[in-house]
Amino acid sequence: MTTHGTLLRGKPLAHELNRSLAARVQRDAQNGPRPPCLCTVLVGDDPPSALYVRAKQRAAKQAGLFTQHHQLPADTAQKTLLCLIHRLNADDAVDGILVQLPLPDHINTQTVLRAVDPAKDVDGFHPLNVGLLHAGTPRFIPCTPRACLFLLHHARVPLAGARAVVVGRSAIVGQPMARLLLGEHATVTVCHSRTTDLAAVTAEADVIIAAAGRPHLLGREHVKPGATVIDVGTRRDAAGKLRGDVDTDAVLPVVHAITPVPGGVGPLTIAMLLENTYIARRGMPAK
Ligand code: GUN
Fold this sequence. Notes:
The structure is a single chain. This protein is α/β, with parallel strands linked by helices. The chain has helices at 11-30, 47-62, 78-90, 109-115, 127-134, 143-154, 174-183, 198-202, 248-251, 265-282; strands spanning 6-7, 37-43, 66-72, 96-99, 163-167, 187-191, 207-210, 228-231, 235-236, 242-243, 257-258. Helix 1 runs parallel beside helix 10 (265-282), helix 6 (143-154) packs across helix 7 (174-183) and helix 6 packs across helix 10. The termini are far apart. The structure holds guanine. Guanine binds at residues 98-101, 123, 143-144, 172. The site of guanine has 8 residues, from strand 4 and helix 6.
């Protein structure tokens, strides 16, 4: 008998989170505070980046947040971008600042990320916020790893003592993901482009987070029966179709659960960004 794994859909969960946030924002407004304000900055007109920023803006507006967007030409000088960020840091009407990545090659990404006020850093990319996460006292958790963990919790996947493998070591996803899983008491391995025999490592995993950005890097031979797979990949193929890092059709018959692409992690990532913007405005919700 062939059993099939469950598809972990993020879209309805994101919808629910966004509705709950909208209700909080509306309730707060009755007591006085203005809604949180998210400010996005996009340098250049890379189509996928423009698409992501538009999706973030749309979701923020739908949840009743205030928004600002600054669109700068691709040849903007680093100094000009830093001036804008300093202005937004000082602006009390702005709670969250998101500089969409990647930035053009002539701009030093680290310098720009360090310029954002850590208290407005809703991406969680400033070294101070990276440090707080690694110290175990996070303020802003990067949105994509936070979305992955939310999905694992929602699906009630046991993490304490589980063998978790993160594929990809980016500062945006792989590294913070590994730290979050350690915080859940998983035994964590991080694989990357220099890993020899990737399949031997991932095939031992109870939980796989695929965040390498390489379409269909993982197939049936990479996955242990009963494993849970979170697919962060979002590359477009020649036909413009979004492709994950995992060959979903090949692994679905054997996994416990897997996120689809699209409609898995992506929508939740935006929901987490809105939550971080709320935190920037109102502080951490009480535990
Ligand atoms: N580019 C790809 N993912 C992200 C993200 O989470 N935040 C920002 N600012 N840029 C990105």
